[in-house]
Amino acid sequence: MSSASAEDEPRANGGRLLRRGLASMLTSLPLGLLSFALALMIWATVTHEENPSVRRTLPQEVPVEQVNIPRNLLPTGVQPAKVEIVLSGPRSAVNDVRAEDVTVRVDLSRADEELAGAREATVERPLRAEVRRRGVRVETSPELVRVTLERQERRTVPVCVDRIDVTPPGFAVEEPVAADPSEAAITGPRRNVEAVECAAAVVRLTGLTVSVSPQVTLEPRDAAGRPIGGVAVQPATATLSVRVKQGLFPRQVVVDVRLNGRPAPGYSITAVRTDPNVLNIVGPLDVVNAVTAIPTEVIDVEGARSDIVRSVSLQLPPGVSSGERRSVITIAVQAVRAPGSLGVTPRIVNLGTGLIATLTTPTLAVLLSGPLPDVIALRPTDVSVTVDAAGLGAGVHRLEPRVTLPPGFGLDGIVPDRVEITIGNLR
After folding, report:
1. Which is higher by pLDDT, 4 or 15?
2. What pLDDT does residue 119 have?
3. For residue 20, what pLDDT is reported?
4. Which pLDDT band holds residue 203 (cuts at 50, 70, 90)?
5. Which CATH architecture group holds 155-246?
């Protein structure tokens, strides 16, 4: 055998082995595919039984979002504005979906072409719904919505300044209050735009004593000052130039009470009280500097015998103002206290049985003080002077008398301060 024949024999054996292996694989392939398909069917059946497919309607409706709105159009109505959502898919995934997981949109691109020059029209569009859950399908009911669109109008209006409250007393805002810019563009539906009279810039003057330049938001308003919605303002803000000057100056002055007449004889005014007793006045500098007091209207006290309370007007000079225009005046009227004297005969009291007594001093001078009218009207019989003889026997005794005065009087002394009494026996 030649060397070439020896080398070809192993190659021939290897080829035969390869053909036999391929023949064996081809013979067993259908059986393997069948086994895999059966396994897949068994897995799908078990999975479906554990987590079956369900169909569920969300309890809440989902609002419709509008996208790709042409710049020159404004949606003014969507029917319906909310739609019903139906979900389908594996039960575990479907049951986990909430309303906020669903987005419903209506595409309004190229809607301006359908208006064809009209100011307002209604277009019908399909809805596109998406859910943030894998394996869940979503449907809407209805599938179409009708959207009403209006062409946006544009109009230029002036910026008007709306002042809230007032500056503190003595301060004022110089005219005019300038706004930058002085005009604003209003865009929106025609009926809303046409209702706008101006773009209002609100400035509050409370506590304002210096010039300011605030930047404020512009608000579209109608001729009656009511805000108008559904429109846009461009620019959205304006800068105001508010110049504040001090033209009036404050000062505090007292209230000067003016009286006429005199109280009744024996009476006098002991106090005068005012409420308020100090006024805050405001006026030009030279005027307020010349004011030392604010007089009241004249109060008549002629013949007064008791306190007087009056609410009177304040006599403000020209050019001067005050938050108080009246004052309550209380005038205290009391009787004048004066001294007086009376000659009073003492009475002997508590003299023992079988005794008799005589006074060496039959009359005493009682010195007293009290309201003058009462002093003038006082009589000797209004004063009681007694000498107490309790326990005394016959003889001469010097005793201190006891004086009793009417209410309102004070005892200043007795002359003499002792009286002599002689006691004897009855026969």
Report:
1. 15
2. 79
3. 63
4. very high
5. Beta Complex (2.170)
Q: Is the peptide bond before 295 cis (omega within 30 degrees of 0)?
A: no
CATH placement of domain 55-151? 2.170.120.30
Cα dihedral angle (183, 186, 191, 196), rounded to 10 degrees? -40
pLDDT (0 to 100) of residue 2: 42
- Residue indicated by tokens 């594996």: 90
Contact 356, 394 (CB under 8 A): no
Contacts of 390 (CB under 8 A, 6+ apart): 349, 350, 352
| CATH code that applies to domain 338-425 | 2.170.120.30
Q: Which of 375, 357, 362, 358 is nearest to 411 (CA)?
A: 375
CATH number, span 249-335? 2.170.120.40
CB 252 within 8 A of CB 276: no
Mean pLDDT of the chain: 87
Do you find a cis peptide bond into 80, omega within 30 degrees of 0? yes
3-state secondary structure of 260: strand
pLDDT digits over 264-298, tens only? 988 899 999 999 989 999 888 889 889 999 999 99
**Buried-state track 123-137, b at ≥16 Cβ within 10 A, e below 16:** bebebebebebeebe
Phi and psi of 122, rounded to 5°?
-120, 130
More confident residue, 101 or 14: 101
CA distance 95 to 90: 9
